[in-house]
Amino acid sequence: MTEDGFALRIDVADTAWSGLLKTVGRRGVVEHRVVLDADNRSLQITDVCSDVRWEVGVAGSVPRLVARAQKTRTWGRSWVVMREWTWRPGAGVTSRTVAGRRLASAEGRALIRAAATDLGWKERAGLSERVGIVAALVGAVIVLAVGSAFLGGGSP
Question: Where are the beta strands (DSSP E) in 19-80?
Fold first, then answer.
């Protein structure tokens, strides 16, 4: 629970594995933050997607020591459909799956919407969605203005 609502958190990946000369890890989370307005019986859903990857050890066709980390985070409305599998060599010629995932971010929002609809609540656009819509409209107006200036600029 949060001050003004709740959060649905989905741990997509939380794994680490080690090889002979290398250690690799990954943590992926999708969180749907829901803000409730009890007076209007409305809610806003904001998606926060976070992915952290790290690697330490020897890597590459020419062996060299590496230490790297990467973090990505998106905030707003995300339409993500993802499939990813990671294998590591096993004993002999075989390999085994270390991490596998399939995620459609709409699934979490669908769970929240279904429960809210059953209780008579309605969804409304959050701040990040409204900013995105305004930015898209302003961009469309600029493209139309520039396009008409180029196309109509040559005629008297």
Answer: 22-37, 42-59, 64-76
